[in-house]
């Protein structure tokens, strides 16, 4: 069914007689007022709007934000030549956002345009938090709201597109602070952003950082941003805070495979959130922050607290106001070693970055440089067959491997003669090579003509290996990969032999599976979780061994 003004009027008349419509989705043309389409959907149990006008502008002249009061999916119809455009055309120019998100929303295949000719300049595209209806009555954001955005473009998000937009604040995705400390907690569930482009944003592109100012433990359960590109961002691409109580659980945060171009020096800041992962990143051709954010020009990214780390990153041609000693920062117990050997500074060789083409040619060292052997950066730009040869170096123990010529990423041109030198850290000694290279010769030389995997092992001078056969304590590691589909590995360690139970729970605390319950010898053990018959979502796995218990979060994404 296509929604037009005439059809809506007829449907509304019929609905007044026979009750709610049975259909779960409707097709909407750009000629129809978007506010009225939303209201009609919420009143008639419609869960999906399908936008059918190629390149059409979907907007409203209502003087309130487009509020998501009930769960809703908004998608572009398949096969459209151009993405539909979403904006807001408040004639009073008072509305700051396109959407006020108070309930679950999934949006796919659209453009959020804050600077469109039919708009007045918008500070936010998606703003999660409390709202109000046309009568001024409060609409409280549902705790646990899921926000899923895929294949979308966010462009020109500034407060005022006319008067010096580079000076005006704007955020593509923003978590609204509570109006006062007595408000209900503003907390989302799963926030997932995939295959999106952010262009011309007047402050942080994604900002979720109110937990230290208000009584909020977590602003969301899960934040996942992957395969996305950020261009001309005035401050961080992502700024997110946990809370100051380190005894409570933090959000699961995974940001991977992002490309950042022509943006402020700082691209990411994850404060007081344990277990935040930033990996597979390209940051190139940077600039200084906006004049209002000149404090954001010293380091590139920071993670904090145990379990957090930055890995597999490349920087090229950046502009620092005052360069910090460590441009990739891991503080308060977050990890740098052993990931610092995956920090590079090569030219990714974008095809035409000044004109928005960030495609990687086959000769780019960005191929193979990711943690999984794939390409770093937004993989939507990695479409060529690499001409390089995959060359993986691993370290067992504490030390480094010096390569001549220096390796960039994890590849070399075919036929390259490479010299490897193992350099142990203090109190460690080099004990030998393994994988596609054997022996103890150091330095050693080989010619790269096939895919290569080499490990250098360093042993403590006390005679005990760094990863000794018997652990000194009980432990439960983060599953890998995470998120996963459909299988993942879970590793745990036992200080001494005994009973061990590993159980899986859903977010409601209901046990959905016992992964193991039996006797184990002292040492490290790895089990496989197969989630093929489980629904997508967040789960918790709990290890119990004697008096020891530990719980970690995992995410199944199908």
N→C terminal distance? 30 Å
Helix tally? 2
> Main beta sheet, described?
17 strands, parallel
Could you tell me the strand content as a percent range?
35-45%
| Average pLDDT over all residues | 87
The unreliable regions are 1-22, 463-468
Indicate the radius of gyration in whole angstroms. 26 Å
Number of strands: 42
Silhouette: globular
| Percentage of residues in helical conformation | under 10%
Strand-pairing-aware structural class: mainly beta
Can you characterise this structure?
This protein is mainly beta and 558 residues long. Helix content is 4%, strand content 42%. It contains 2 helices and 42 strands. The strands form 7 sheets. It has a 17-stranded parallel sheet that branches. The longest helix is centred in the first third of the chain and has 14 residues, at 5-18. It starts with a strand and ends with a strand. Residues 1-22 and 463-468 have low confidence and may be disordered.
How are the secondary structure elements laid out?
Blueprint: E1 2-3, H1 5-18, E2 25-28, H2 34-43, E3 48-51, E4 57-58, E5 66-68, E6 72-76, E7 85-86, E8 97-101, E9 105-108, E10 111-113, E11 124-128, E12 131-132, E13 138-139, E14 145-150, E15 153-157, E16 171-175, E17 188-194, E18 197-201, E19 206-208, E20 220-233, E21 238-241, E22 252-261, E23 268-271, E24 276-284, E25 301-304, E26 309-316, E27 328-331, E28 343-344, E29 388-396, E30 399-404, E31 411-413, E32 417-424, E33 428-435, E34 444-447, E35 452-460, E36 475-476, E37 487-494, E38 498-506, E39 511-520, E40 523-530, E41 537-545, E42 548-556
